[in-house]
Every structure is written in structure tokens, then in C-alpha cells.
Automatic annotation (TrEMBL):
Protein name (record): SAF domain-containing protein
Native source species: Fusibacter tunisiensis
Domain of life of the native organism: Bacteria
Domain SAF: start-end pairs: 34-96
Length: 199
């Protein structure tokens, strides 16, 4: 009799475990996906990425982190720092940071040094559009316009530290305003949802 009871318990436990596994599989199959950029065929360090070198793949949202590139346009034309095999997910660390020192038509460029307390707050990314704001000694606030980050110099990069200098490109009037206000108060770069773009 005991054998039948034990067998019955084992059968019930087996059914419960099977149901739990089926539920887990279904959940994993319906989990949210994100689209990221991957290498379509192996490329060598120093090569410039062409459109044919890339493809989109789907990744579980739980495995996604901010370093992955989700737009092929960001990677196309960039130089890779390492040999990359097929199916490798592309991150910004795979790409050489390039300081583009030739402004676009009608634009100008300047460099801006950040105070440590500002640089610690967040990291900049090359190609990102930000707004430059000015605050004078009396506390008056002025929006000087939108610029694009063209290069970042971080003297503490190896320690995962802070950005200190940024190279900015923008409309010549905006850049001249930044230069004029440089010694008159506090300049800050502000991240916000911007729709305009710098050429």
C-alpha cells in the first residue's frame, strides 16, 4: 500500500514540475524583445564598417544594456577596434572614438571644459545633441542653443571616471555666443528631448 502512495506522490510531483517548466518556457517565449545591431560577417580590427557588415537581431529585453547599438547608422562608416566575429552584438566600445575636426557647412566648433560636479552627473556620447545653457553671476538663465557632441576627452576614462572636455559643433551664431559667454558665468550642457538636428 505504501508503495502505491509513494508512487502516487511522485506522479503528482512530476506533473507539477512539468507544468512549472511549461509555464516557464511560455513566459520566456513571450518575453519582450529589443532589436540590436550585430555583425553579419567577420571583420578585422581597423576596418571601416559597411552596411553589408551589419544585421539586426532580436534580444531578450532582460539581457539588453545601454551599451548595445540599436541603429545601424551609428556604426556604419566607423572603424572597429577589435576583430569581430559573425553574430557579435555591436557596442560603442567596439568602435573607435573619432574627433571630427571639420565642421559642417555653416557650422563652427569649439571646446568646452566641464566643472567636476557637472561631469560626474552623466556621460556624454559622440553624436549626441544637447542644449547649452548660461547662468550669470546674478542667477539669470539663458538658453544659448543646441549643439552636437563631436568628441569627448576623459582623463579618468580608464578608471570609469568623468568627462572633462567636450568638442562641440553647432550653428556659427550659437558657437560664437558660447565663446562670448565663456568667462561671464556658468556654461552647462543639458540633455533633453530635442527634435532639431545639427548637420
Amino acid at each position: 500500500m505504501r508503495k502505491f502512495i509513494v508512487a502516487g506522490i511522485l506522479i503528482v510531483l512530476g506533473l507539477l514540475l512539468t507544468a512549472a517548466e511549461v509555464s516557464w518556457v511560455k513566459e520566456s517565449q513571450t518575453s519582450s524583445k529589443v532589436r540590436v545591431v550585430a555583425i553579419a560577417k567577420a571583420i578585422t580590427a581597423g576596418d571601416k564598417i559597411r552596411p553589408s557588415d551589419l544585421k539586426y537581431v532580436e534580444l531578450d529585453e532582460a539581457l539588453y544594456y545601454n551599451g548595445y547599438i540599436d541603429d545601424q547608422e551609428i556604426a556604419i562608416g566607423q572603424t572597429v577596434r577589435f576583430n569581430m566575429q559573425e553574430k557579435t552584438l555591436v557596442t560603442r566600445q567596439h568602435l573607435e572614438e573619432q574627433a571630427f575636426n571639420k565642421p559642417g557647412e555653416g557650422n563652427s566648433m569649439t571646446a568646452l571644459k566641464l566643472e567636476p560636479e557637472l561631469a560626474l552627473c552623466w556621460a556624454f556620447e559622440i553624436g549626441e545633441s544637447v542644449c547649452v545653457t548660461f547662468t550669470d553671476v546674478g542667477g539669470s538663465y539663458t538658453d544659448l542653443g543646441q549643439v552636437k557632441i563631436k568628441a569627448v576627452y576623459d582623463s579618468y576614462m580608464e578608471a570609469g571616471g568623468m568627462s572633462e572636455y567636450v568638442l562641440l559643433e553647432g550653428d556659427s551664431f550659437v558657437i560664437s555666443n558660447i565663446v562670448k559667454h565663456r568667462k561671464l558665468g556658468r556654461l552647462e550642457l543639458v540633455k533633453q528631448d530635442v527634435s532639431a538636428s545639427i548637420k
